[in-house]
Amino acid sequence: MIIKDLKNQEMYEFVNWGIECGSGWKDLLDNMTDEIKKVFPEMKFTQIKEKFGTLRAYCCSAPEEAHGIIEKYEELSHTTCEACGKPGRLCGGGWYKVRCEDCEELGWRDG
Ligand SMILES: [Zn+2]
């Protein structure tokens, strides 16, 4: 799945490809970029994706302070359902995805 209609699109260098993770993380990404934009308005992300079930955000030459913000939101992705954004947990076997109970039940798998 690819997220579209994100806020702060100018912060994503690769925006034409969309973002390779579920739309449940849209708010997370919007909040993260809001927070970073306040401190480092020039910063750009080079890649954002789901890896082993959780969010990974890559940027080039980010200041130390920005790494702290990114880590905070990557951490939040461990408990945010990637499908719908409700509180969830990392689940799976062979595949890892963060899902809330409802989405896990539905077998919502495709990232
Ligand atoms: Zn869900």
Explained architecture:
It is built from 3 helices and 4 strands. The chain is of the alpha+beta class and 111 residues long. It has a domain at 9-79. Strand 1 and strand 2 form a beta hairpin. The longest helix has 14 residues, at 26-39. The protein binds zinc ion. Zinc ion (ZN) binds at residues 81, 83-84, 86, 88, 99-100, 102-103.
Gross geometry: elongated
Number of helices: 3
List bound small molecules. Answer: zinc ion
Q: Helix amount, in percent?
A: 25-40%
Query: Spans of 5+ residues with little confidence (pLDDT < 50)?
Result: none
Q: Largest beta sheet: what is the strand line-up? A: 1-2
N-to-C order of helices and strands: HEEHEEH
Number of strands: 4
Mean pLDDT: 88
End-to-end Cα distance, whole Å, is: 5 Å
Largest pleated sheet: 2 strands, antiparallel
| Gyration radius, rounded | 14 Å
Strand content: 15-25%
Label the structural class.
Answer: alpha+beta
